[in-house]
Amino acid sequence: MAIVKYEMKQYKTLIIIWSIALSVLIIFLLPTFISLMTNNSVMTPELINSFGRNKFFIAIGVNATSLLTPMGSYSYVNSFVLIAAATFGTYIGISLITKEYSQKTADFLFTKPQGRRVVFSSKLFAGAICCLIVGLTYLVASYFAFLIFAKDSIEFIPLLLIAFSVSLLQLLYMVVGLLLAVFMPNIKVPIIVALGIAFFTYSFGAFARIMGYKFVSYLSPYSYFNNEYIREFNSYDLKYLLLFLVITIVSILVSYNVFSKKDIHTV
Fold first, then answer.
1. How many angstroms separate the Cα of 54 from the Cα of each of 7, 47, 58, 82?
2. In terms of pLDDT, which residue wins out, 196 or 212?
3. For labelling, which of 100, 179, 206, 260 has a CA lying 20 to 30 Å from the CA of 266?
């Protein structure tokens, strides 16, 4: 637990900043989009009809006509929140490992002494806690945003699943970042790599939807939590959920095996 507490202390400020940022984002943007999309003087029939032909909405995986409903507006905003979530998760996963190389702080970890497997498990647990705190804070903020601005339009199950997908996506990208870091522990600027991975995989999903190449969507974790599917069936897509579990478990097992055999430079 000492390592977990140490890691949580290291990321405390970052967790607070991201939690507040995502909460403020949804609380301010949701009423803005709801007001805009329900304004008849703005949303003319001609404009609404043009939505169906707009490739932008196809690319982000949102049914354009659903934007006219509060849940549709929420799905639209959430599609961009997922990019931030992926960035945060990847950054946490990478930095959990790379900071021990860049800061040469491994001597702290082994003073108990602690075996590498205990260190890895503790870091993984701490990373998961970081992601869940940010994700669950966003979920609560989303619920309160609906209570304040669209109380009569709450679809509880879809709202819960869509909001919780932020936590799941963060966890997935966190373990992928962890996997990358055990093979490339000397990454100097984790946030740049995290941004690159988040946007690159998002582009895969957008390309797959525009071109109709469904097989490409498997390369984009964003596709695993499709808002429109969730709203229609009140559940996650089983095949993508299974893929999510496989990637997560395999990433953890490989990372665990590599890290347990890898030397860490000490001061």
1. 45, 10, 7, 21
2. 196
3. 179
Number of domains in the chain: 1
**267: in domain:** no
Residue 64 lies in a domain: yes
Cα–Cα distance for residue pair 217/57, rounded to 1 Å: 16
pTM: 0.89
Range of the domain at 237: 2-261
- Tens-digit pLDDT profile for residues 39-91: 656 555 666 566 655 666 666 666 666 777 888 889 888 988 999 999 999 99
Residue 10 near residue 92, CB atoms below 8 Å: no
Instruction: Count how many residues are written for the chain.
Output: 267
- With respect to residue 266, please indicate whether it lies within any of the assigned structural domains: no
* Top-confidence residue, 237 or 99: 237
How far is CA 53 from its chain centroid? 28
Which residue's structure tokens are 């953890």? 252
Q: What DSSP string runs through 83-126?
A: HHHHHHHHHHHHHHHHHHHHS--HHHHTSS---HHHHHHHHHHH
Whole-number Cα distances in Å, 59 to 102, 111, 223:
38, 50, 11
Residue 267 confidence (pLDDT): 46
Rounded to whole angstroms, how far apart are CA atoms 20 and 16?
6
Smallest CA-to-CA distance from 9 within 86, 85, 90, 105 is with: 105
Asked whether residue 148 is assigned to any structural domain, the reply reads: yes
Token output for 99: 């900071």
Helix (H) or strand (E) holding 197: helix 190-211
